[in-house]
Amino acid sequence: MLSKEKLERINILANKAKNESLTESEKIEQKLLREEYLEAFRENFKRQLDNIEVRYVDEDGNPVEDQKAGHSVKSDGLSGKLS
Questions:
Q1: What residue spans carry the region label Disordered (predicted)?
Q2: Candidates 3.40.50.300, 3.40.1280.10, 1.10.287.540, 3.30.70.580; CATH matching 1-51
Q3: What is the value of pTM for the model shown?
């Protein structure tokens, strides 16, 4: 995740942009910080999704095992494949 200082700088630049004009160097800095923030956000979100385990249950709430492999069905992350 982004450092606290970088997040604060993003907010400072956003507030400044609302109230007045940013200099060209501030616009470039803002763009780079936003890109870095989005990259960190996407990585973190992908890690969260990759750690989700899908388990199926029958109508009584009992776990259902994969008929072919004999184990619980687990999602293979963002690929959508089930193993």
A1: 59-83
A2: 1.10.287.540
A3: 0.64
